[in-house]
Request: fold
Amino acid sequence: MSKAHLDPPMAARLLEPGPLALLTSRFRSAENLMTQGWLMTVSMDPAVVAVAIHPGRLTHEYVGRSEFFGLNIPTADLLAAVHCCGIESGRDGDKFARAGLTPVDAQEIDAPLVEECVAHIECGVIERMTFGDHDLFVGEVLAVQAEEEAFQERWLVEVDAGQVLHHLRADHYAALSRPYRARLPEDD
Ligand SMILES: Cc1cc2nc3c(=O)[nH]c(=O)nc-3n(C[C@H](O)[C@H](O)[C@H](O)COP(=O)(O)O)c2cc1C
Reply:
């Protein structure tokens, strides 16, 4: 897949419609990934994003220790893998192998990326906060890449390649398929 290298502020545009991500992490030589639904943009300049991770996840341990994480954006063709990575733990075996996904080197972070995903956001942890049952890891965006068939300044949700996934509940998921262009009432 040929992915365009984008400026860090484009991380906000990649996260704009609230897509699910596969969060990748590495501690020493052990690599893991988990499905991440709670994620958001915090700042455009500098580009900063945040993810909420429960302390019980293996991912929490790896991100807490390494202070790096990758956000890899999957599309609808990866639904089974996304669901698997959200209900099974890396403590029970190699989840990349289990989900049929391929770890590849990142540009800037000491964590793998998921080759099959159409976009990647590489982050270094700059802050960590606890409000309740999840911990918020705030990450400075260090590198961004996106597949041009899927993303050109915005997600191309009208084509298969741009069908990023959203979580509804339990094993129910959805993809956006119809973009609308807004006009003001006086333009009609
Ligand atoms: C759609 C979906 C979204 C999820 N979002 C989050 C999340 O934002 N934060 C979190 O801590 N766990 C989330 N989970 C749960 C973890 O992905 C799950 O507990 C996973 O097995 C943890 O794997 P690990 O122990 O290998 O890190 C989500 C699960 C699903 C199915």
The pocket of flavin mononucleotide is lined by residues 20, 32, 34-38, 52-54, 57-59, 86-91, 95, 134, 167 (CB under 6 Å).
